[in-house]
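User: Please fill in residues for this 347-position structure.
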């Protein structure tokens, strides 16, 4: 895809390039979806993205200066993002912040305070200025919900040095987690979005790919495909496997981040200490995660619900589940990827 004069790919609703047009000019022309809470969405580059985030995406392309040591934690919303942030932060910073220490940052603040989303941070910062992460010391951990195809080439290029850790989750659980999260935070969000939509109506939209960062399966497939092509660049994790074997996932993270556990650390129980520090039970007990709201007005305690797999069965019918499974299976046919960890997946 050819770069524009500002260094940002300008894409219309169908994924075409719109050269020389600033995001503010482009936004009104993009397809609009207002029925799917919590935000009005615009179709950009083949994905339904929050309208308010798109200027931040433009700023990331124009102003963010990645470093070879940067690690990007990527995910579709409500797919294990908070847990991944906690685990990666604890693993990467364990030399300065031993996981068993009482003063550990994760015992005093939330994972979203320790690892920030770069597109929303730029969006909230507004226009003007340079790279808002320029003063952050290396190595930096940043997060994103952006699809792989919309990341700046300065990050995805083979020679950039930047690495990406992606976590995926069963679509049914991702949907339910997002629905409950949005319902709990409905008063905090833009009132131009319809509030009376039922779970069935929002489910219909999800099946059509009309949700934040949707279609979900397409989002996952992009990162999985890149992890197959360049495993040294993209580490692909499955939320369900992380739940079953958290210690193994912590070791994989450490290896990928270039800071594997030494024998002495293993013997001292460092891996188990990180698993415990980052468990949903422990994070839920942190006072900073019990009260207050984020700068988007989201209740902090709503980030820590069950953290379980298969909770969808308590909220949607088997018929609805079968319908979504069929949509996903049809969309992924021939790709080699399966949410059931079949079809040629090496995980």
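Assistant: Residues filled in for all 347 positions:
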């Amino acid at each position: 895809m050819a770069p524009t004069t500002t260094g940002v790919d300008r894409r219309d609703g169908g994924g075409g390039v719109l050269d020389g047009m600033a995001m503010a000019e482009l936004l009104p022309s993009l397809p609009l979806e207002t029925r799917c809470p919590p935000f009005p969405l615009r179709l950009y580059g083949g994905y339904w993205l929050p309208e308010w985030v798109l200027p931040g995406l433009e700023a990331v392309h124009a102003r963010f200066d990645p470093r070879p040591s940067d690690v990007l934690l990527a995910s579709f919303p409500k797919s294990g993002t908070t847990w991944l942030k906690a685990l990666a932060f604890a693993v990467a910073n364990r030399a300065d912040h031993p996981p068993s220490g009482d003063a550990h940052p994760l015992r005093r603040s939330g994972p979203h305070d320790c690892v920030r989303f770069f597109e929303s941070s730029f969006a909230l910062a507004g226009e003007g200025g340079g790279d808002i992460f320029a003063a952050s010391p290396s190595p930096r951990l940043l997060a994103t919900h952006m699809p792989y195809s919309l990341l700046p080439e300065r990050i995805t290029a083979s020679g950039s040095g930047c690495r990406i850790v992606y976590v995926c989750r069963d679509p049914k659980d991702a949907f339910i987690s997002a629905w409950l999260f949005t319902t709990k935070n409905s008063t905090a969000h833009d009132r131009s979005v319809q509030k009376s939509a039922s779970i069935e109506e929002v489910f219909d939209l999800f099946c059509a790919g009309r949700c934040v960062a949707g279609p979900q399966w397409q989002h996952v497939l992009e990162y999985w495909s890149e992890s197959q092509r360049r495993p040294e660049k993209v580490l692909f994790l499955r939320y369900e496997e992380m739940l079953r074997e958290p210690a193994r996932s912590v070791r994989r993270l450490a290896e990928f981040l270039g800071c594997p556990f030494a024998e002495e650390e293993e013997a001292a129980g460092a891996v188990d200490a990180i698993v415990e520090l980052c468990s949903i039970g422990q994070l839920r007990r942190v006072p900073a995660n019990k009260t207050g709201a984020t700068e988007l007005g989201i209740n902090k305690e709503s980030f820590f619900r069950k953290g379980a797999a298969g909770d969808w069965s308590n909220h949607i019918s088997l018929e609805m589940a079968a319908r979504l499974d069929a949509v996903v299976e049809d969309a992924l046919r021939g790709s080699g990827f399966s949410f059931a960890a079949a079809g040629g997946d090496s995980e």
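For context: Residues 318-332 form the longest helix (15 residues).
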